[in-house]
Design goal:
The structure is a homodimer of 194-residue chains. With 194 residues, the first copy, chain A, is mainly α. Helix content of chain A is 72%, strand content 0%. Chain A has two domains: 58 residues, Homeodomain-like (Arc Repressor Mutant, subunit A), CATH 1.10.10; 124 residues. The first copy, chain A, binds a DNA duplex (30 and 30 nucleotides) through α3.
Chain lengths: 194, 194
DNA sequence: GAGTCCTAGCTAACTCGTTAGTTAGTCTAC
DNA sequence: GTAGACTAACTAACGAGTTAGCTAGGACTC
């Protein structure tokens, strides 16, 4: 056999690292705690991953990939997309925190991957919205996309607004999702200009 | 004279601490760096503020107070309010990061202050929106308020979306502010239900 | 089929720079 | 000569990263 059970150990480390980084960020995370939670020796972290930093980068990339895999973008159903993003964000609070930490603690990160995904979505939205334009243009796709993401994640664990300010709303995800979808529909139909 | 120039030193420490915490968070901040930036001895930090944690809490409270002081809430002009929040967020990237760090690193923080502000705004919105309701109710004020904040700050330095994904938009604040105002107007006018 | 070597997977214990927090004392003005 | 503002130097612990070595089992030799 090629690998023995080292792959299982790696997986356990990545899982423990995800939890630790999600809870404490890069600077606050403790390598010893990760090793203990993974039930293995600290040195293995340095054998399998080179440093705390690269371990974080690995965890982040692995989890970002999950986002892109699980969230299909539907340019012709933006409210539905927002609802799915909302569900995903509520179902994965740890992942949302991880992304927030990365945004604060890392300079740039893997801009390439994210920019490609962004451009693809913008292009798809432009293609889907070539129907008639009345007086005043629609809001720009690039703007609309960010607005959708901001709205859909405003009640996630990583947001300073939603869950902290109105815990009552966050406790009722179904109506919250409906309200987000309604709001996105309103923005998508909105026209700018006089 | 009562105080000598210790007040000036305290102010320099708070300023240096704001910058350090804003850049690195609580766990990543270094007390020695703060002292050096403030041009004073490290021990003074512990004399004037008790610990790193309470220094952070002091910095946060002082700056949150600025937010509440400088941002007048206008329930009858929500797009205008959103535009002002946007301007404030763009003008104070360090403060936005500070709030983001606080949300991630602290358990609860000063819930009382924020909850009071939130309730006051919700009540003001309800009072301002007692005109006729057509078929389908308006979106709940509590929801609308969080949505506005999420939209208005989506391009701030602390957001994982706006500035990182579409730096082009962030470079043109005037149209961005207009788009945010339009979007908020659309949501505020939106009705929910069938 | 016993002895020896080798490798993958793993661990205990260590190093050493860093860091929050402290102590003891200096200096200046009144 | 005392009190307020401040400093240099210290301490104790922590924490990332390292070293040296253990153990099980396969394989190869005779």
């Amino acid at each position: 056999m090629a690998t023995g059970n080292s792959e299982a150990t790696k997986a356990r480390i990545l899982e423990a690292a995800r939890d630790e980084f999600s809870a404490h960020g890069i600077a606050g995370a403790r390598v010893d705690r990760i090793a203990k939670a993974a039930g293995c020796n600290k040195n293995l972290l340095y054998i399998y991953f080179q440093s705390k930093e690269t371990l974080f980068a690995t965890v982040l990339e692995q989890n970002l990939r999950r986002v892109y895999d699980e969230l299909r973008f539907t340019p012709d159903d933006l409210p539905g997309y927002a609802a799915r993003v909302f569900d995903f964000a509520m179902a994965n609070p740890g992942l949302m925190r991880l992304m927030a930490w990365a945004g604060l603690e890392q300079e740039a990160g893997d801009v390439a991957l994210r920019n490609a995904a962004q451009s693809a979505k913008v292009a798809a939205m432009e293609a889907a919205a070539h129907d008639a334009d009345g007086p005043g243009a629609r809001l720009a796709p690039e703007f609309l996309l960010t607005a959708i993401l901001a709205l859909a994640t405003a009640w996630s664990a990583a947001s300073p607004f939603g869950p902290r300010l109105s815990p009552g709303l966050a406790a009722d995800p179904a109506t919250l999702r409906a309200q987000i979808a309604d709001a996105v529909a309103a923005i998508a139909a909105a026209r700018t200009g006089p």
